[in-house]
Design brief:
This protein is of the alpha+beta class. The chain folds into four domains: about 140 residues, no CATH class; about 120 residues, Beta-Lactamase, CATH 3.30.450; about 80 residues, Beta-Lactamase; about 140 residues, 2-Layer Sandwich (Heat Shock Protein 90), CATH 3.30.565. A hairpin with a 6-residue loop joins strand 4 and strand 5.
Length: about 525
């Protein structure tokens, strides 16, 4: 009998260990791996989005510079004073001709002085006169035989941008020059009197984008219509065949390409003025390598924690098995047989919570808090609820009260939030109305939707210089035909009684507080996003 009891104890212990491994250890490590992969994908998308914003801002800055140069040249080329002077030049006395010469050279100096991106500017007339603000390195006859002269006169547009690698286009001895040519017409816009040629200061111009870095080694540069880099030489030169597929794009395009067995993220933004492209290139791995290293470190730590917790469970089971009598052990075995699955699910749930909280503290770079939490678990053995620290009690209470009904309908609720500052850029009670009613509308839609899995997601995060509040539901997807009218006054998707404020009123509250609201729909569901600008210190 004693031998049988001992044998049964060993069998029971082995059985418990196997169950623990199957229901706790394997899910823990599987969860760590899934979270790791998911986090990397999210970081990758966020980094690519940040790169997209960086390219757009760089393009806008570059566009302002191009517009400024064009305005400086156009203002003088189209001025009635210059056109009238050139048209009547040979009808005037020599002293007046001299005054015109002085006036033109003075204006050229003023243009070069007022616009730091113009290093030199030349005015050439059809009657073979030339004016400049510096040393003339352009022969009139050579210019009239040049490719640029032909192109500007064949072009219906009065202005032409170009980059000359060898000087052949302008028929000059200058190499690697970037310039803009503008026709000077008579007062009736019938005939061409001359041409303004403004040479761009390459160093100043390329500083608008070459000093902007994407990650550690990523770069931004400009290519022409032949997909050849101009103005600056890049470290990462993308082969032409890789660019041909996206060359026809009229707006910003971001793709992932492979160059010599390495993946790169490449962005291409057309620059219509000189038929070129602003291009950004960065190794894909570099976008999130620091995050990847940090995640690997945290995953190792979490794995150690999981093993420690598993060993702790085994020790507890072993101590209990030693303390109880054979009679109690018999009862305990019966209890395990009946309740084991329930207990294991509880352990799994509880320890998943512990690991997720510890992982969250580590990702927030609070290792001391993680160690403190672990000590509390070991000493007290208490379960701690995972909490989303919004930092504003009124808002937390309103949100959690509103979502309590959703739990009754079996809706999966996911809340992701950063801690908000005490001073918000929006009236607190207006913000509560906005969020509560967006959540009510989402819950109402989920209640009446057909589907096995229903999810409500609430996210609060910062993006650039804005605080973003997002409420989304995975089903039902809002039809395309009503998305543009959903914020209109009096609009309703059905004839049923409203469960919250109409979206028109919500939008009015958002606008009242200087924010804006938008609807985005994708395969994950409907996303209502409310943006408020952050308060500046």
């Amino acid at each position: 009998m004693e031998y049988t009891v001992i044998t049964n104890k060993k069998k029971l212990t082995i059985f418990v260990v196997i169950l623990l491994i199957f229901f706790i250890i394997i899910p823990i490590f599987l969860n760590i791996f899934i979270v790791y992969k998911h986090t990397l994908n999210v970081i990758k998308k966020e980094k690519i989005k940040s790169m997209e914003q960086l390219i757009i801002k760089t393009f806008e800055s570059l566009q302002l510079t191009i517009d400024d140069i064009e305005n400086s040249v156009t203002e003088f080329a189209t001025s009635m004073g210059l056109r009238k002077s050139l048209q009547e030049y040979y009808n005037l006395k020599p002293k007046y001709q001299h005054s015109i010469d002085v006036y033109i050279e003075k204006k050229l100096n003023e243009i070069s002085k007022d616009n730091p991106y113009i290093s030199r500017i030349v005015c050439i007339t059809e009657d073979d006169r030339i004016y400049t603000n510096g040393i003339v390195r352009l022969d009139i006859n050579n210019f009239k035989l040049s490719q640029v002269y032909s192109e500007i006169n064949l072009n219906t547009n009065d202005m032409l941008w170009d980059y000359d690698f060898t000087g052949q286009k302008l028929n000059s001895n200058l190499e690697n020059i970037f310039y803009i040519v503008h026709k000077i017409k008579d007062v009736n816009n019938e005939s061409v009197l001359g041409y303004l040629i403004a040479y761009i200061d390459l160093d100043r111009f390329k500083n608008k984008y070459t000093n902007i870095k994407i990650a550690e080694t990523g770069e931004i540069y400009i290519i022409n219509n032949d997909l050849k880099p101009i103005i600056s030489k890049p470290n990462y030169k993308v082969p032409k065949e890789k660019l041909k597929d996206i060359q026809k794009a009229e707006t910003l395009v971001i793709n992932t390409i492979n160059i010599e067995d390495e993946n790169f993220v490449i962005s291409l933004m057309p620059i219509s003025e000189f038929k070129g492209y602003l291009i950004g290139v960065v190794p894909l791995e570099e976008l999130y390598c620091s995050t990847k290293k940090a995640l690997k470190g945290s995953n190792i730590f979490l794995s150690v924690i999981g093993i420690i917790l598993f060993l702790w469970i085994l020790i507890v089971i072993y101590i209990i098995s030693k303390l109880v009598s054979e009679k109690e052990m018999t009862k305990y075995r019966l209890y395990l047989s009946e309740e084991m699955n329930e207990k294991l699910r509880m352990y799994k749930h509880d320890f998943m919570n512990h690991l997720q909280i510890i992982q969250g503290l580590l990702e927030l770079k609070k290792p001391d808090r993680a160690y403190e939490y672990l000590n509390n678990v070991s000493k007290e053995g208490k379960l701690i609820k995972q909490n989303c620290a919004i930092g504003i009690p009124e808002l937390e209470a309103a949100i959690f009260t509103t979502i309590s009904k959703a739990k009754e309908y079996g809706i999966d609720i996911k809340i992701e939030s950063q801690e908000l500052p005490e001073e918000l850029p929006v009236n607190l009670y207006d913000l509560i109305k906005i969020l509560v009613n967006l959540i009510k509308n989402a819950v109402y839609a989920l209640e009446n939707a057909q589907g096995n899995y229903k999810q409500l997601v609430i996210r609060i995060f910062s993006e650039l210089d804005e605080i973003v509040f997002e409420v989304s539901n995975n089903i039902p997807i809002i039809p395309m035909e009503i998305r543009d009218r959903i914020f209109e006054k009096g609009f309703s998707s059905d004839n049923k009684e409203e469960k919250g404020l109409g979206l028109y009123i919500v939008k009015q509250l958002v606008n009242k507080n200087g924010g804006h609201i938008e609807l985005k729909v994708d395969e994950k569901g409907n996303h209502f996003l409310v943006y408020f600008p952050m308060l500046k210190n």
